[in-house]
Amino acid sequence: MKLHAASSAPASSAAPGCPPAPPVGERPSPSALGDGAHQERRSLGWKIRFFEEIRLEDLPEVGGKNASLGELTRHGPELGIRVPRGFAIPADAFRWYLEQSGLARQVADALGKLPLGNLSALQQTGAQVRRLLESTPLQPELAAAILEAARTLQPTQPTQALAVRSSATFEDLPEASFAGAQESFLNVCGEKALLEACHACFVSLYTDRAISYRLERGFTEAVALSVGVQKMVDAQHGASGVLFTLDPETGFAETVVINASAGFGEALVQGRVVPEEYQVFKPTLSSAPAPIIHRHSSPSSPSSPSRPSRPFLLPNDIILQLARAGCAIEDHYSRLRGKPTPMDIEWAWEGPGHAPWILQARPETVHAGRPPERPGRFVLHREGHVLLTGISVGTRIASGVVRVLDSPSEMDRFQPGEILVTEKTNPDWEPIMRRAGGIITERGGRTCHAAIVSRELGVAALVGASGALKTLANGQEITLDCAGAEQGRVLEGRLPFGFEPAAPLQKSPLRTRLLLNIADPDQAMRLRQLPCEGVGLLREEFLLASQIGIHPLALLHHPELPAALRDEIERRTPGYSEKPQFFIDRLAEGIARIAAAFHPRPVLVRLSDLKTNEYARLLGGAAYEPPEENPMLGFRGASRYTHPDFKEAFTLECAALRRVREDMGLRNVRILIPFCRTPEEADRVLLAMEAAGLRRGCHALEIWMMCEIPSNVVLAEEFARRFDGFSIGTNDLTQLVLGVDRDSERVAPLFNEGHPAVTQVLGDFIRRAHACGKPVSVCGQAPSDSPEFARFLIQQGIDSLSLTADALLATRALVARAEAEQPPGGPSASALGTQPASAP
């Protein structure tokens, strides 16, 4: 996916800097071409092919890229996409060029003697072959055919810039992409530059990286090159980038991931910028108004006239247009191939008032061609000092010696298994990357060259690791940890790590359903594969602290704040003129990423339960939070939601949840009310939620309540009339039953979930809730930590256990044993269902 600018002039309808071409008259359409010169070129055994004439089956003649462009051009109207017009110089023309010049035999002889894996020989042979082609210009017949097609392509705009792209006959195959192995050029202006770019594409079939890739992949047959010439899309006032119809990191197939940078896409693909990223949820794309579940704006993304006052480069309508285009292309290729075919697509957008263009499309090869990995995970056995962080690629851990390189020409210094550290990579680096034990780049995002190739190779990599070149030195021993989340780490020294295979799963279903406790959206797509039936606890507190970091009342009253605080909020919320919208967007998208990953399995979202001292630590929070002697028993949970001092902020939480369920279509989200002291308080909260558009039962909305206060047990039947189910919080319930402040070190030894006083209360509540027909789950830490406690809950007929990820598999085995010891029976209500929520 390599794009080079062959001219410094920006592309436009009359590109500035492009030399004027001789005036030409109206040219006939490609199908009408029939002059003598055209017929003569037919007799030579090849002819120029316009995209309208090309189908996917023509790949052997025009290469993978051009075959795909032809297929998309022919079917564009029915797919609802636009492809810039263009033509292909066929592979037979390339072969003719080699044969007529006498180069074919010389090239074959040179490559036939090249030993596999010898980098020095690769460099020498590649340079020799390239010199042969560079010194041999295009024949007059070939040059004339190219120029004639170019004039036909744009008869009324002869000075419009063109894009010239290589398209090898073994490129963009389902099993091997070859993306970026050969050269492409943007903003090609004038006939002389066009011919030079086409010739340079021919030469690039024999770059070191292209030769190495073919040898590594076992492509020993003769490879030929086609060249695509296409009208250049003027994206200087808009954006361009790539999209995948699955998550390129985890292989999650239910999302479209779009990366964008301002202007032309070269900086993004080459890893010079960290792009903006958008994720769209595919299952609700046709039914929900705006299923954009994640938007991430990069500080390194340059500003653009297309977004003078918006926080993101792409407006929602363009994001959705791109997602629909990607899904349409994926569906088309899946029908052609008879199996699901996720796609890797390049696009460009000219700015406001324009629809996006599709520039390239190829089957995604990393996840589509990879056999299922052995279930399990890489685990660090000892923590170390964190040297730097970046965007994690893959889920592996690697350790080794650092090798800092400035250029791929230094490949003779690189030893197999070393950790490559450099500013960014491009296809010239691939022979080195194939020998690396790990890869670290200072620049780049999840779809940059380094990320794409690292996934294909199965190598741990960290991209966008700012400061890597200053922090790391040759010979330094490090550990590269990409196994934890989307943010990877570089740790000092060689730390011990290993692979923990997952325990074999029980084939028989369990009566007690197992759910996950999860709060970090970055973990969701990796944890979705665990054998669970949904999320039993998604705590908003983590999102408030990590994704937002600003007190909601400070956002609501931003204009009234002191200047220094106003300035800091402005810095953290760029592009948001309405500051409360920042809170709604961040909270909604954090919830949505988790809900989408587990869809259609249910996800219980617990509303905010920060204490006053925790809220005070958010930016601007000190002014809005009263000092309390014991925040654990103070202004927290449900009591906040309707209180005059906080109810305005609670409406933002409701707006975020309504956006997730209605705008994004994630009806699998249910709501959990924490620390609700009395039935009357429950009534006030339910009325406030209904006023904010969250009415229990509307669009299958379930509202559950945390059982964590003795009054919840004493008045179980009263609460059961108001809620759809219960989730027991063992930490707070134990604290309040035993009168033990769990934050106090002196009485901490008295805190015991297994105490008879606690277990008696738990058993009583489960029986009474079941008698009311309400399901009961447990989301506290105790079942994750204590097998005995989990066994007790199963004996009491608990419907579901919500566990931490690291405890899930072990607890699953324990539950199977405990259920085998106890015959089924008792008044257990059904737990959280696994059926999809009602359609919008």
What brief labels describe this structure?
seven-stranded mixed beta barrel, elongated, single chain, 18% strand, 29 helices, eight-stranded parallel beta barrel, alpha/beta
Q: Mind sketching the topology for me?
A:
Blueprint (H helix, E strand, L loop, with lengths): L3 E2 L30 H8 L5 E2 L8 H21 L6 E4 L1 H11 L1 H10 L6 H16 L5 H14 L8 E7 L15 E5 L2 H14 L3 H10 L7 E7 L7 E6 L10 E8 L3 H4 L6 E6 L10 E5 L19 H22 L5 E7 L7 E7 L12 E5 L5 E8 L3 E8 L14 E4 L7 H4 L4 E4 L7 H9 L3 E3 L4 H4 L5 E5 L5 E6 L4 E5 L11 E5 L3 H7 L7 E5 H9 L3 H5 L6 H10 L6 H20 L4 E4 L5 H5 L21 H4 L5 H17 L5 E5 L5 H13 L11 E5 L2 H5 L1 H5 L5 E3 L1 H9 L17 H16 L4 E3 L3 H4 L1 H9 L4 E4 L1 H17 L19
Helix pairs in contact: 4-5, 5-7, 14-18, 15-18, 18-21, 28-29
What does this structure look like?
The protein has 840 residues and is an alpha/beta fold. The protein is built from 29 helices and 29 strands. An 8-stranded parallel beta barrel has the order 22-23-24-25-26-27-28-29, surrounded by 5 helices. The chain has a 7-stranded mixed beta barrel with strand order 14-18-17-16-15-19-20. Strands 1-5-4-6-3-2 form a 6-stranded mixed sheet. It is elongated, with a radius of gyration of 30 Å. Residues 1-17, 19-40 and 826-840 have low confidence and may be disordered.
